[in-house]
Amino acid sequence: MMGSQGGDQERLFYSFSLEDHVPKDHLLRDIDRFLDVSELRGQLAPFYSHTGRPSIDPVLMIRMLVIGYSFGIRSERRLCEEVHLNLAYRWFCRLGLNEPVPDHSTFSKNRHGRFRQSDVCRRIFEVVLQRCMLEGLVGGEGFAIDASVIKADANRERFVPAADAKKLAEGEGGSRAVREYLDALEGNNPAGPESDSDEPPSGASTPPKNVSPTDPGARWTAVRGGPAFYAYSTNYLIDLDAGIIVDVEATPAHRTEEVDATRTMIERVQRQFELTPKRLVADTAYGAAPMLNWIVNEKKIEPHIPVWEKSLREDGTFSRPDFHFDASANTYDCPGGKKLTSTGRPTNVGTVLFRASQHDCGSCALKQKCCPNTSHRKIARSIYEDARDVARTVCATPAYERSHKQRKKVEMLFAHLKRILKLDRLRLRGISGARDEFLMAAAAQNLRRMARWLTPATV
Hints:
This protein is α+β, with helices and mostly antiparallel strands. It has helices at residues 18-21, 27-34, 40-44, 58-70, 76-85, 87-92, 104-112, 114-118, 120-134, 176-187, 255-273, 289-298, 358-362, 367-370, 385-395, 398-406, 408-419, 430-454; strands at 142-151, 160-161, 210-211, 219-222, 228-239, 244-252, 279-281, 302-304, 324-326, 331-333, 339-341, 351-356, 378-382. This is IS1182 family transposase.
């Protein structure tokens, strides 16, 4: 016999429990086991008034944000709607069926006000990381670092000359992102000109020619094979044991600033959590001589990083590796058996110049394979060449081959960030907005990683 639905929706009393309607294997159940943000009330308390009506519980908004970043719900308006309708989301937020969900405008006020002033997003990330460490997911032996470009909330078709950026602060154009950019610009110390040495392109502190009128802190950049756009970079420092993110730093999408974030993150992790890795894994962009010197000689970390080289020639003539450096005599021996000497004075680009005798080169049978277009051969040696030699030695070991494969873990995190968590374009503007988004997304990734690694599989 065919049945029919009763449709009795006018009952006066119901016996209903959210706990019974959330599946036992739901991701939020696993995340809830490892998330405790109750202590953040104390951090946020100074930013609330002691008088007036009680505000919305900040822990409720934090839990809602965790849901948004964990499930790729990018819109605050849609997040509020989903929490209103989804029983599992209500359960995670500790909301009963009859309790109201905060309005989406409340999120905007708190994210641009109390949350940013108190740096609560950084604290949320650290609370999650501490739990990862407590659960034994952070070994501290090997770290990997990399950066990924995220589009800014800025129209690529609109720009103004950077020289006119101060005019953006006048009238209605004085947005938070504009004021933030101008404050940072005034605090910058202009760098010197770029140089032809074994270093990546410089000029991070030099303002670009054009900026976005809505988010001037974003940098005009492009990925290979695609159109240019305004963007920020999220920089991840991860532990290689379980792929846990141990620090995050937001920078404009500029290679030098991405590389400089390495120092900031390693020192912060060392200061906050007393973690100093034995080895650091990165790609060639991080293989500049000053960075390698900082890693090897100052931090005593083994660099599993390819050296940034510009001395290798492709025209068939001798490259610098064909010359042998005699450390005891501080000279180079050329393939023809002659010596290249130096005054020992470093240049303004951090190199010491070694020169061969013009007489030796003029009568050498190998001149056409050595310096066919100059009267004598010159070699520039970095003042940090000892650190570069350490990196070259490490890169020739089997341990480096294993590290090179492990570096894919950070690239997989970036793919997860963009494809699963939907963070391929920012919603908040300015460097502080990018920082908040990157920190919350990284905290969500760590929570999901804990849930996957530490929750027993259900049969």
